[in-house]
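seq as requested:
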Amino acid sequence: MERNAPEELEISCGARGVVGCTRRFRGETAGDIVDAARDHLRSEHDIDLPETEVILQSSESLDAEVFVDRFMNMGYSKRAVLVMRRLRELLNVQTPSEDEPRV
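struct tokens:
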């Protein structure tokens, strides 16, 4: 995640694991970025994510496998779960891993 000014956050679609997309999202809060990213993912990539509040809920105690299983059991695709997990990592919920799958 990049910081353009002390109060502004920025991430790109490609940084979230969506290969080939250069769309960037800026906002003052993590919620601003998640809102914009959810709309873009839904309309441009056919990836449906849960509501912003669900994405931002802390689940630091969940390992990667449990996190994926939890949201797949809620009906989200593996692609959506991986993008959501990467988005949470970029918003500092946890540190991104080098072997994170790309979609």
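Residues 2-90 form one domain.
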